[in-house]
Amino acid sequence: MVTVRPLSCFDLLKYGNINLDLYTETYNITFYLNYLSKWPELMRVLESPTLTAFTAPYSSAGDFSESAKGDIAPASDVRVPPTCGRLMGYMMGKAEGRGSDWHGHVTALSVAPEYRRLGLATQLMLELEETSER
Question: Which domains does the chain have, with CATH numbers?
Fold first, then answer.
């Protein structure tokens, strides 16, 4: 099952598998952060449910556990973060215009090559359409 969730600034460190494609436009980090600060509700990621080597365990307090820092923490204290899978795709959008000209705009929509042809881009577009109509 694929999870569609809001993009966070930490996702910008994990999206290499999506942007390493010849046909995908890559922007600098400032561009992504600018969009994230202005239109956070129109930025989404698709995430697989599988844990990866890049997943760091969290403590019950919500921060990185001692095991993530190199020490061993008790197993009962370690929690898996809710954002624990591999990023499959992302969408950046913005809202612009005035009055009856108000509309949503897709700035970037990309799905990692290994996850294409599964309808994931359609799922992201439906999310943008639903969110921009609010």
Answer: 3-50+85-132 (3.40.630.30), 55-81 (no CATH)
88 vs 117: CA distance, rounded Å: 12
Quote the tokens at residue 29.
């980090």
* CA distance readout (Å), 11 to 7, 28, 69, 100, 130: 6, 14, 20, 34, 22
Q: Which two tokens stand for residue 51?
A: 């844990």
pLDDT digits (tens, 9 = 90+) for 73-84: 444 444 444 446
Query: How far apart, in whole angstroms, are the C-alpha atoms of residue 33 and residue 83?
Result: 19
Q: Is the pLDDT of residue 67 over 80?
A: no
Q: Tell me the one-letter amino acid at 80.
A: V
User: Can you tell me whether residue 30 is helix, strand or coil?
Assistant: helix
